[in-house]
Amino acid sequence: MIVDRRHVMHTGLAATASLLVTQSLAVGAPRYKAMAFDAFPIFDPRPIGILAETLFPGKGVELINLWRIRQFEYTWLRTVANAYVDFMRVTEDGLVYATKSLQLELLDGHREQLLNAYLSLKAWPDVGPALQKLRSAGVRLAFLSNFTPAMLHGSINAAALDGLFEHVLSTDQARTYKPAAKAYQLGVSALGLPLEQILFVAFGGWDAAGAKMFGYPTFWVNRLGQPAEELGARPDGEGRTLEDLLSFAGV
Question: Helices 205-214 and 181-191, interaxial angle, to 10°?
Fold first, then answer.
């Protein structure tokens, strides 16, 4: 049998080139097949603080801080007590408590403005480009938030993020709140992937810890520069922006 050396060499070079391309693609592939986001790594709540200061001059910062604390404490208390109401109701209850605590008069118009602000949040400046890069890299995107469906969809529209998220998951579906396991399970069930292939992206340190305890690989978008919670569960990665998230995820 006569062997054409040029043919062998050409075939070998082609095979080597194909292997190098395959290896290159593998090296550049994202570390995770999907990401499940809390609302606040995406939506910027700062305008609510500006509105609070406008309505209650000199008291806006204090009001927002107390309101936020009660907002989340009420979700945890209601989860433990098995006394579920949706997140908009919890948000309103927290606002009423905070204004009473600070001896502020909450007029109906003020209440409506502050609550409606949660229905039309805009995105942080780095969000649009980062989400487009993730989508282009083939990463599946989902929300997994305590926000009600109306809060999520209203802010998605306001932030011009329509069509970027494959799933918009509210813990209202499970009638509980994070960090309950039933809440975090919504992401696994909807995406149909093994837990280790879904990166959970948190805004709050408590949520980063809760997701990690549930079993998600977790990235903390620590936009406020807060210390980690002392809960014995640290995120796998941490950064101040979604650019840091992209670097962590290999995108």
Answer: 70
Q: Which one, of 94, 3, 99, 8, lies nearest residue 55 by Cα?
A: 99
Domains of the chain: 33-44+121-249 (3.40.50.1000), 46-119 (1.10.150.240)
Contacts of 59 (CB under 8 A, 6+ apart): 52, 53, 102, 104
Tens of pLDDT, residues 109-119: 999 999 999 99
Q: Where are the alpha helices (DSSP H) in 124-241?
A: 127-136, 149-158, 181-191, 205-214
pLDDT tens digits along 105-164: 999 999 999 999 999 999 999 999 999 999 999 999 999 999 999 999 999 999 999 999
Q: Which residues are catalytic?
A: 38
